[in-house]
Amino acid sequence: METTHYTPEQLTERFDFAQKYRNIVYGLIGVGLLLLIVGAFFVGSPGSDDAHSALGTQADIHAVADTDDGDHGHGLRHITGFTRVAANFLLANIYFFTIVMGALFFLAVHRVGNAGWHTAIRRIPEAITMYLPVAALGCVVVMFMLPVLYDWASPAAVNDALIQTKSAYLNQGFFIVRNVLFFVLWGGAAWWLRQLSLKQDLEGGLSHFKKSEAISAVFIIVFALSYTFWSVDWIQSLEPHWFSTIYGVYIFAGSMVSAMVTMFLLAIFLQRQGYMAYVNDSHIHDLGKYAFGFTVFWGYIFVAQYLLIWYSNIPEEGFWYVHRYRVHDETYKGYAFLFYFNIIVNFAIPFLVLMTRNAKRNPKVLIPVGILMLFGHWVDLFQLIMPGAIYNFQGIGLVELGAMMLFAGIFLSVVLTSLSKANLVPINHPYLEESLHHSTGPV
User: 317: Cβ–Cβ under 8 A, 6 or more apart, which residues?
Assistant: First the structure.
């Protein structure tokens, strides 16, 4: 095989976050914020249909509370237009946070595994992890809205016997303390790994490389436990009467799929702007394999959770699915289409399209299916969050679009700025040469 040599200029290039890209990103933020404000005004307007469906009446709320056994905890909060806005803020923040955590785990597990192939692209997941403080700040904002979104945080929860049995864990004080600790640990790991990578660029040697291995090993252990607790805290506890022992694994699977897709889309974008000539089809192929593999894993966890609950047929477990897919049922909430569409967009289409070897190497395939998979991740989180946060389906409108555009703009701003702050390739990484000539074999 012919060996390709790269010039010093190519290996020390930096991304230029040009003004035209900044305008696009700032436009996303501005338009997203505008749509969110306008959407919030309309859903909160006393004369709007959305407001009536969201607010209901006090009689309805008390009636639901009085029939708690059949509704599994709902009716403890007064659902308003602001509840929908807060739920979409939570959704958009969690969406990009899960991408960050997938990228951070990718960095850590490849360092512990002593992998070399990813070295040429590792600055992309490094840049993604720099969004973590912003996501943490978003979660801090949500902490001030816990009684608005979470039944267990509502003052009326004292009248719910089942929630009270979980109050030692599900209480606002402990919730805030443990999640602040999680973000400190995760943010510290992301910052430390980034700093060691940058120092290695300047100083070379193996000391920073070896330190990153120790940090990554500890992080993986912490991540396995803390990310499960985080998933239960922020998403599963929206419906505190329900539980699943593999919920954290399910969220992890979706995080990895969206992180891999984000990474290969950014890699393709950078290449089309004239950067990263050293990133070849084999690098893209491996990212595509990861996206495909975790898509299958997501489908496996989805089915595993569903089949166990369906087979046992226990009302205390089954109501979670009834809220989402049962159309002719008194507890139907209007999410049936999204529930089935979720399976198609997150498993069926990606599985069939990315099955072949060539598909995982072809940007003409990866770009559209990648965008579809990122949309699928939003659909997945939407149907996980909204039935617990706002109860009945209230449609997808300006609030949903505005929240996602706002957070997408902030996310891209942070990531692209981080990419412009350092070389696009870690020039003194001991496995760089291996990565520059990485090959998965002939097509």
Answer: 242, 243, 309
pLDDT in tens, 85-101: 999 999 999 999 999 99
User: By the 8 A CB rule, do 306 and 318 touch?
Assistant: no
Long-range contacts of 358-367 (CB under 8 A, 24+ apart): 358/443, 359/288, 360/284, 360/285, 360/288, 360/289, 360/291, 360/292, 361/281, 361/282, 361/284, 361/285, 361/288, 361/443, 363/268, 363/284, 366/264, 366/265, 366/268, 366/284, 366/288, 367/265, 367/268
Q: What is the pLDDT of residue 387?
A: 94
Closest CA to 381 of 367, 368, 366, 396: 396
Q: Residue for token digits 């084999």?
A: 282
**DSSP per-residue letters across 201-266:** HHH-SSHHHHHHHHHHHHHHHHHHHHHHHHHHHHTGGGSTT---TTHHHHHHHHHHHHHHHHHHHH
Residue whose token pair is 């002593």: 114
The answer on pLDDT for 325 being more than 90 is no
**Amino acid identity, residue 346?**
N
330-385 tens-digit pLDDT: 667 899 999 999 999 999 999 999 999 999 999 999 999 999 999 999 999 999 99
Distance CA 36, CA 43 (A): 10
Helices then strands, each counted (H, E), the chain: 20, 0
pTM higher than the cut 0.85: yes
Helix 281-312 × helix 363-389 angle, to 10°: 30
Residue 176's identity, in one-letter code, is I
